[in-house]
Design goal:
Layout lengths: L2 E2 L3 E2 L1 H6 L3 E7 L4 H4 L8 E10 L6 E14 L6 E15 L12 E5 L5 E2 H12 L15 H14 L5 H7 L1
Parallel strand pairs: 1-3, 6-7
Antiparallel strand pairs: 2-8, 3-4, 4-5, 5-6
């Protein structure tokens, strides 16, 4: 069912022929993504469809990616799985002035002279899906935030104020 997608394609040719690419890419093949992951052993399921934009007649694509990302939790520094299931719609434009005619939610890109890298498209979408501060949901943490609060409050009450002696010297 899934096979490897081509690394380089011509978006104009693909849009003229309504091409669709379904396949898988190994996470380890995506160099920038690999640097963000604890483990890059999973596959990314990719569905990439090209056609012409109905109004502008320029290449339009719909990219869907689905994969589990193994990230490092910034609370616990332990690895955790972050599922990604993302879809983006984009249009290649010869002039960025045409971007005013696009619907909301449609990304626009400058039309390249030659081929584009499908791997870079996939990698860009996955990098944008990574949260700014990756962390596990609180329900999966082994400790609860409320457990530490009472002991720290008690410690604060038992310790004398370090500025009390300075106050006595002042008077």
């Amino acid at each position: 069912m899934f096979e490897k997608i081509p690394e380089l394609i011509d978006p104009v040719h693909c849009a003229e022929h309504n091409r669709r690419f379904r396949g898988r890419v190994k996470q380890s093949d995506l160099k920038r993504l690999r640097k963000q992951l604890v483990s890059a052993e999973e596959w990314v399921e990719v569905d990439l469809v090209f056609r012409r934009h109905p109004k502008l007649k320029t290449p339009l694509f719909e990219l869907s990616v689905k994969t589990p990302l193994c990230l490092e939790c910034q609370r616990t520094l332990a690895p955790f799985v972050y599922p990604v299931d993302s879809t983006v719609t984009g249009v290649y434009l010869s002039s960025l002035a045409l971007s005013d005619d696009l619907d909301d939610g449609v990304e626009f890109y400058e039309l390249p002279e030659g081929n584009i890298s499908t791997y870079e498209l996939v990698e860009d979408e996955l990098l944008l899906a990574i949260p700014m501060i990756p962390r596990k949901d609180e329900e999966f943490l082994t400790w609860q935030a409320g457990e530490l609060a009472p002991s720290s409050v008690e410690d604060a009450v038992e310790k004398p104020n370090p500025f009390a002696k300075l106050q006595q010297l002042r008077t």
